[in-house]
Design a protein that fits this description.
Number of strands: 12
Strand content: 15-25%
Number of helices: 10
Oligomer: single chain
Structural class: alpha+beta
Order of helices and strands: HHEEEEHEEEHHEHHEEHEHEH
Shape: elongated
């Protein structure tokens, strides 16, 4: 960025300091598009996320800045992704050729610069910068420099949030995010339910958010009989099945050992039950090298206005019931309470430790 004049260097450094001060992806992205907008005087900047759902890819606008105003989309309250990826030929071209950027002229004469964000070899989001005229080299240098800082820093954040073995989000990330997640969605959803305003699907069933705790059945026997290398391979393969069984905007965590947690959002109870059971069946039907057949038990609960510790405890109770009653099954906490099998309180057992 040798061509940047002295007048721009001071605000540029200020923005770089602000960008690298964030420890949360949404705030990081917000500071980046704000910096680019202020330093380049472009018309509009959009941050677009890519989602995978039912083996198809979709695009959803995460945030946009235009006319000096920033608009963000709350990931906890939005429904399914809005547009198929095929509606964005520029993004499709970036994916096909793994391009670092893509420039084009829109039908209305505006100039568009697409900057894909690559993570683990896949494009998970994209910046779309719109300007009235072609960007000069000085502005392009600023845009590329800030964008590369953003990508590098996002990779560092992502690395700190992931489990080294499976690549799933780790326990530390769950502890940091779930309290914010639960309180962001639960009060609104519960309040709306009381007023009969909760979102419904086409059949009229209310949509909610769900937390599940998963445990690999008899995992200690796998380690004892085949060794820890094969045990690690089972963990990696179960993590891959988890990724394939859930949408990309759901959240999957490895708690450590053979324990996983899933946050399933904006889904009816009947669909949640089907999705969880489909995952259970996917594991049951998979042939694990050397080990053969492996099964999982799962307990889940609706995310309500209870505290995160209580919600986790309820999911843990339902998991414990599943393991004590045959394994290779799923159990729903509220159903167990309503049937009198469980008391509506937290019990202590040794399956999962919380906080």
């Amino acid at each position: 960025m040798q061509d940047i004049d002295d007048e721009m260097k001071k605000p540029l450094l200020k923005h770089l300091v602000e960008i690298t001060a964030h420890r949360e992806h949404s705030r990081l992205a917000l500071s980046v598009i704000s910096a680019l907008y202020q330093l380049t005087d472009v018309q509009e900047i959009r941050m677009l996320d890519i989602f995978n759902m039912r083996d198809a890819y979709y695009v959803q606008e995460k945030m946009v800045i235009r006319n000096g105003e920033i608009h963000t989309i709350d990931e906890h309250t939005t429904d399914d992704p809005k547009e198929p990826l095929s509606n964005y030929p520029a993004m499709m071209a970036c994916i096909r050729s793994h391009l670092p950027e893509y420039a084009e002229t829109a039908d209305d004469g505006a100039h568009l610069l697409w900057l894909p964000v690559w993570l683990h070899g896949k494009m998970n989001s994209c910046l779309a910068i719109r300007s009235d005229s072609a960007l000069d080299q000085s502005k392009l240098d600023v845009i590329r420099g800030i964008f590369h800082v953003y990508c590098n820093y996002q990779s560092l954040l992502d690395y700190s949030e992931r489990d080294a073995l499976t690549g799933l989000f780790n326990r530390k990330t769950f502890d940091e995010q779930f309290t914010k997640y639960a309180f962001a969605i639960a009060p609104h959803e519960s309040h709306s339910l009381e007023k009969n305003e909760r979102r419904h699907d086409d059949a009229g069933e209310a949509k909610g958010h769900w937390l599940a705790v998963v445990d690999i059945d008899h995992f200690k026997q796998v380690n004892d009989r085949y060794g820890h290398l094969y045990g690690d391979e089972v963990l990696i393969l179960v993590a891959n099945i988890l990724r394939a069984s859930f949408r990309s905007h759901d959240r999957i965590f490895r708690f450590g050992g053979e324990e996983f947690v899933i946050l399933l959002r904006s889904t009816t109870l009947s669909d949640a039950r089907k999705i969880f059971d489909r995952f259970r069946q996917n594991v049951q039907e998979y042939d694990f090298p050397q080990v053969g057949k492996v099964t999982v038990s799962l307990g889940f609960v609706g995310i309500s206005r209870e505290t995160p510790v209580v919600i986790l405890g309820h999911a843990d109770q339902s998991l414990y019931h599943a393991k004590e009653n045959g394994r290779n099954r799923i159990c729903f906490y509220e159903e167990l309470v309503n049937s009198g099998v469980l008391n509506s309180g937290i019990t202590t057992n040794d399956t999962v430790e919380f906080f």
